[in-house]
Amino acid sequence: MSGDDAGQASPVLTGETPTPALFTGRRWFIPSALLHELDPDAARAGRRPRRTARDWVVDFSCFLLAVLVGAAAIEALNDNPHVPEWLAAVDQLTGALACAAVWLRRRWPLGLAVAMTPLTFVSDTAGGAGLIALFTLAVHRPFRYVAWVGGINAALAPLYYWVRPDADVPYLVSVPFAVLLTVAIVGWGMFVRAKRQLMVSLRDRARRAETEAELRAEQAQRLAREDIAREMHDVLAHRLTLLSVHAGALEFRPDAPPAETARAAGVIRESAHEALQDLREIIGVLRAGEPDDTGRPQPTLGALDTLVAESREAGMKVALDHRVDDAADVPSSVGRTAYRIVQEGLTNARKHAPGTEVTVTVTGAPGDGLTVSVHNPPPEGEVPPVPGSGQGLIGLTERATLAGGRLEHGHTPEGGFEVRARLPWGC
Q1: What's the pTM value of the predicted model, to 2 decimals?
Q2: Is 302-380+387-427 assigned to CATH 3.30.565.10?
Q3: pLDDT along the chain (427 residues), means of 10
Q4: Beta partners for residue 362, in sequence order
Q5: 3-state class of 427 per DSSP?
Q6: 115-127 in b/e burial notation, b at 16+ Cβ within 10 A?
Q7: Domain Histidine kinase/HSP90-like ATPase, which positions (predicted)?
Q8: Where are the domain boundaries for CATH 3.30.565.10 in the chain?
Q9: Inter-helix orientation angle 391-402/171-252, to 10°
């Protein structure tokens, strides 16, 4: 019989693993039990596996082997003077029934093995069917069942050969040989079972690995979207605040000189255009479900002067104390974080403390880290409430933490507000 003999799915081998694609086209040459274990739908529905072409070949081979062993036993019975004719006839009838029962081994492996134990004790011709039933049990059931049935068969061997001695083989040879044969059959079946379990385990691990890879990809996509959202908040908040400031100037100074009105209108138009352009790009990225691959350059610490100049053009009073000799030496991630901190600080000062002079201080050196501070004094007079959710400062804190630094913000003793961050800058 084949070492890859298949059978009914074992409860130990259950698992929701997909039928492997490499079996497609040759599933009829795979054991039905293995296909059943690798088919999650069949396992959940509790359907019995259908015999494959290989199963029919193996089952017929097992039946033929049982018949051949029984035929050899019939010849030995006829030559044994210790067995009367009526007992030989009963033995042959019992052996025929045992051989026919081999076809049920897939459906009831434990029941067949248990039933074969007394049959093989009273019938020589049922010996082949009994070995096949024991092998099937070892393949499809846990070791505790195999140990009990196999142990009983091995324990009955001395009594069997004492009651029905072999005419040609001595007693002291027959008993060890029968026990060794039982152990070999059980070991072979357990080896096949272990191989089946390994196959199912590998398929299950492959499925889990694919699922984990999909989860990691989804998480990476979600993190990329969150990063895009933070970038969008920083960019749009800055540009829309500039637009609001100039629009407010036009509203409260309708008698402004034409040149100043034209300049403010130009800033509004340019800010609105850039905001819409950034919004289109980000929406396109989100619709595509992919990270931002437009190649748009990200701001670094070197763009800080441009940011301050843009704020001054909008009418803000900004004092920049930039004491970093070569901004190009700052790591890009650290420089981008510092830029966003200053950008958000200027945006908040413009909204909540209009007309005040904002002080931006950037200091640091390789090995000492980079310190960024945005401070504004308390505003003069009443400031109309400006809607805000505080998400900007939360996002800045998260940015600084991801960069390996820390960020603090809050009111100063004199009533102003300060955002202060310390970022790492290795040697």
Answers
A1: 0.41
A2: yes
A3: 40 38 46 52 54 76 83 73 72 83 83 82 79 86 84 79 72 81 86 83 84 81 70 69 70 73 74 71 58 57 87 86 82 85 88 88 89 91 65 79 87 91 85
A4: 322, 372
A5: coil
A6: bbbebbbebbbbb
A7: 337-424
A8: 302-380+387-427
A9: 130
